[in-house]
UniProtKB/TrEMBL annotation:
The keyword Iron applies. It is found in: Cell outer membrane. The keyword ATP-binding does not apply. GO terms for cellular component: cell outer membrane. The lineage of its organism: Bacteria, Pseudomonadati, Pseudomonadota, Alphaproteobacteria, Rhodospirillales. This is Iron complex outermembrane receptor protein. It holds the Pfam family Plug. SUPFAM superfamilies: Porins (SSF56935). Residues 256-685 form the TonB-dependent receptor-like beta-barrel domain. Keywords: Cell outer membrane, Ion transport, Iron, Iron transport, Membrane, Receptor, Signal, TonB box, Transmembrane, Transmembrane beta strand, Transport. One of its GO terms (biological process) is iron ion transport. Residues 39-148 form the TonB-dependent receptor plug domain. PANTHER family: FERRICHROME IRON RECEPTOR-RELATED, TONB-DEPENDENT OUTER MEMBRANE RECEPTOR. A motif (TonB C-terminal box) lies at residues 701-718.
């Protein structure tokens, strides 16, 4: 195979520009499960790698640092560092339950993470993060109607190398990443070991003295590691073992009561982000372990790839969801739970090597998950446990897929693919005691779907490609097992999406600039929605007839002069629920509802935007370096991301509309060819504090973003 298959895949997301060059480098991506020039792939894909990835991750953020850093991508959480929720082109799921189905798949080292708590594994020592927009059901499957966040670890190397990267910042924030890689037996056996440690002291002081609760909030200690061993006995066979784990001890999401000024989406006068007033604790713990085995065999006409994955986690999280103390909230309640997801997956695929103008891929996929858990509501004013619910969730998926690309002429390439998936899900809900007594329920759903896509890529010139793509996506039937305040589970039938997109990808001005432009339209039938919260504190699934979305995405990268690199990107996304009858409960008088209501007082969703779907996302970076001496450089780097106004819930209310948010960073430092680098940085330069999520009981409880962080960084690479 020349170089190892994993080494070839490792080229994906190569650094966009060489600092010593006045031209941009071509970007290689693996969006089609094989390395290819990004410009020649008929998919809207953005790759983040190298220095940009390091900068965005420097202040101790979890995987949500990706929000708004590529067109059409949003990420948020009401669970803190253990449960990211992703949205692409407005499609996502705001449900907070452990078994919630998510239409954006996170694929880590070719293994699809289904459970949201497994999607939270830290991003460190990776080659690239690729965001694939639009349905990706043909090659990736496993619930990808919105798209894929694809993360590929840095792979073992044939030469001894590594790095150590340490940052220290405000609130005693420490972020350390280190890796070492090299051969054990030259050309036969090599390894890579990497570690990531993030910690921060509690920095939000609890002002509650009535209950003498001296617990402060928002600190964490998050430790993760990965070890990879690659065995290449001959030029035709590669075997890569990946073992990884994580241990988190920190705070759950901090909910703050009465922080939104009624009738507006402003914070109340005198709001202090470093203070809270609560009578409960917010503990959160997670430990996880995973392993995967990649076997790649070059059989001559075809290459056979096997990917075996196993992931598990044990998670405990409890939050003071009323956000206050008895004197400031209508009722005082904590909720929490223990959950233990387990996932096993196996994929085998074949890809042709040399069939002239033909490229063929096909394979089989199997996925099995099992989760047990216990959830409870705990009333802090009396100390009585009002509900205890246990659950057992099972899910199984079988799939078969194939794709073909045919080079019709030197300029025109046509492609297409299909995948058939079948899903079985079941949930046992056991309420030992509660508001309405003991309960045992067993609920199951199943369904199958054939997803497909067709595409055409046309090279207008050697530097400009145009593409069109039509693709369908599928989200399996779902079950909502929250029976804390109800005597029945809810289900939703399968959701299907058809997407149309066209775009241009170009390299301009003798490779000094690139421009990618995509327009899209999608229609989702039987859109799965989760009515979360409201005055009754319930969560139930429902299907809307349709949800549509359309928009434009733009990405520009340029090196106008030597040592200066600028990037800019943005998207306009319009989403709309189309169903004249579907309705949900509102906040019950605690907020200013702007939604049309039906005769029962519920909000009609027809015409509403999807939740967490800002119309505008913009981002930009600028890097300028000044050579110092023979081998050094002083550099300036700044990055900015803008997220426009968005809606937190399915219904609309003045208080639950997120204000626009501009998040920027600045980094100034020195580096040299000997591998040394030092820098100072600021994150959230403008110190904008926004309500970025809420709980719609009746006390205007909200969640806010992180404040401004100052820090210093030292890095050594060898």
């Amino acid at each position: 195979m020349g170089m190892s298959a994993f080494g070839l895949v490792g080229l994906a997301g190569v650094v966009h520009a060489e600092e010593a060059s006045d031209k941009l480098q071509e970007i290689i991506v693996s969006a089609e499960r094989r390395p290819a020039l990004e410009r020649e792939v008929p998919i809207a894909v953005t790759s983040i790698s190298g220095e940009k990835l390091d900068v965005l991750n420097s202040s101790g953020m979890d995987i949500r640092f990706l929000a708004a850093r590529t067109p059409s991508l949003q990420a948020e959480s009401s669970f803190g560092r253990t449960y990211p929720r992703f949205y692409i082109r407005g499609l996502g799921n705001a449900d907070f339950d452990p078994n919630a189905s998510q239409p954006v798949s996170v694929v880590f080292d070719d293994v699809a993470m289904e459970n949201p708590m497994l999607k939270a594994f830290p991003v460190f020592d990776v080659g690239a993060v690729e965001v694939l927009r639009g349905p990706q059901g043909t090659l990736f499957g496993k619930n990808t109607p919105a798209g894929v966040v694809k993360i590929d670890s840095a792979k073992p190397t044939d030469t001894f190398s590594g790095f150590s990267d340490l940052t220290y910042g405000s609130y005693d924030t420490v972020n350390f990443t280190g890796a070492v890689s090299g051969p054990i037996v030259k050309n036969v056996l090599k390894y890579r070991a990497s570690v990531n440690m993030q910690r921060r002291n509690d920095w939000v002081q609890n002002q509650d003295i009535s209950t003498k609760n001296d617990t402060d909030f928002e600190g964490y200690r998050d430790l993760a590691g990965r070890f990879q061993l690659e065995y290449t006995p001959n030029e035709n066979l590669d075997i890569l073992l990946n073992v990884h784990g994580r241990e988190l001890d920190g705070s759950a999401r901090l909910f703050r009561a009465n922080i939104i000024k009624k009738g507006t989406n402003d914070l109340v006068d005198g709001f202090d982000i470093e203070k809270a007033n609560q009578d409960g604790a917010n503990p959160q713990k997670l430990n996880s372990f995973g392993s995967n085995l990649h076997v790649v065999y070059d059989a001559g006409p075809v290459t056979i790839t096997s990917v075996s994955g196993y992931e598990r986690a044990n998670v405990f999280s409890r939050g003071d969801i009323d956000g206050g103390v008895p004197s400031t909230v209508p009722f005082s309640v904590e909720t929490g739970g223990y959950n233990s997801p387990r996932e096993l997956s196996q994929e085998v695929r074949l890809a042709t090597n040399d069939l002239g103008p033909w490229l063929l891929q096909g394979g089989l996929y199997y996925f099995n998950s099992y989760m047990t858990g216990k959830d409870y509501d705990y009333v802090t004013s009396t100390g009585a446990i009002d509900d205890q619910v246990r659950h057992k969730d099972r899910s199984e998926t079988d799939g078969i897929f194939g794709s073909v690309k045919y080079k019709v002429t030197d300029a025109l390439t046509l492609g297409g693919g299909v995948r058939y998936s079948h899903d079985n899900k079941s949930v046992e809900s056991i309420r030992d005691f509660g508001y309405t007594g003991p309960l045992f329920l067993r609920t199951s759903v199943n369904g199958g779907n054939a997803s497909w896509d067709v595409s055409a890529d046309y090279a207008i010139t050697s530097d400009v490609n145009a593409f069109v793509r039509v693709a369908t996506g599928y989200l399996a039937p779902s079950i909502q097992d929250r029976v804390t305040f109800a005597n029945a589970t809810s289900t939703a039938k399968a959701e299907t999406t058809i997407s149309y997109e066209a775009g241009i990808k170009s390299s301009l001005f003798d490779k000094r600039a690139s421009l990618n432009l995509t327009g899209y339209y999608y229609d989702t039938s039987d859109m799965q929605l989760t009515a979360v919260g409201g005055a009754s504190n319930t969560a139930r699934l429902l299907n809307a007839d349709h949800a549509i979305g359309y928009g434009v995405e733009l990405e520009i990268e340029a090196k106008p002069i030597e040592h200066l690199l600028v990037t800019a990107g943005g998207s306009y996304n319009h989403t709309e629920i189309q169903d004249p009858t579907v309705s949900v409960a509102t906040c019950g008088g605690g907020c200013t509802v702007t939604n049309a209501l039906n005769a029962s007082g519920n909000a009609l969703l027809n015409g509403n935007p999807l939740p967490e779907a800002p119309k505008w996302i913009l981002n930009a970076t600028l890097r300028y370096g000044v050579p110092v001496g023979a081998d050094g450089e002083v550099f300036f780097y700044t990055d900015w991301a803008y997220r426009g106004e968005d809606n937190f819930f399915l219904y609309t209310a003045k208080e639950f509309t997120g204000k626009p948010f501009l998040d920027g960073g600045i980094r100034i430092g020195y580096k040299n060819d000997a591998g040394y680098e030092v820098a100072g940085f600021v994150r959230n330069v403008l110190d904008q504090i926004r309500v970025i999520g809420a709980i719609d009981f009746n006390n205007l409880t909200g969640m806010v973003n992180e404040p401004r962080i100052f820090g210093v960084q030292a890095k050594y690479s060898f």
